[in-house]
Design brief:
Elements lengths: L2 E8 L3 H12 L2 E8 L2 E7 L4 E6 L14 E5 L3 H10 L5 E4 L5 E6 L5 E5 L4
Parallel strand pairs: 1-4, 5-8
Antiparallel strand pairs: 1-5, 2-3, 3-4, 6-7, 7-8
Length: about 120
């Protein structure tokens, strides 16, 4: 069965957002990394993970592709990608530096969904 991995949101200032969530709720960073020019931090929100993504230049709106998304770890990654393709749903496949694969697509209402081959 697939499980929720994290919810990702786009932020203007990663440091400011990390301080906000830690000072207000006590949430701690569990992982930080970069993906291309994006700075990303994963924070434990007590029962889940929130991914904060900052793109270069801190634009006032998310870049193309809308970096606010729901991410699902799916052990049947290849099977699910094949189902999406069979339904004619546009996908964007990404291979991370560690070799794990991600697949981004939109739900019927345009919300971005990410499926992950491996959890962080």
């Amino acid at each position: 069965m697939a499980t929720l991995n994290h919810i990702g949101i786009y932020v203007k200032d990663l440091g400011k957002s990390l301080a906000f969530y830690e000072e207000l709720f006590g949430f701690k960073v569990v992982n930080s990394f970069t993906s291309g020019e994006a700075k990303i931090s994963m924070i434990d929100i007590g029962g889940g993970t929130l991914e904060l993504v900052q793109r270069p230049g801190s634009p006032t709106a998310p870049p193309d592709g809308n970096w606010s998304h729901v991410a699902i770890h799916d052990p049947k990654f290849d099977e699910t990608v094949a189902k999406l393709e069979k339904k004619g749903i546009a996908t964007r496949l990404v291979t991370m530096s560690n070799g794990s694969r991600l697949c981004f697509f939109s739900d019927p209402d345009g919300h971005v969904i990410e499926i992950m081959e491996k959890s962080f």
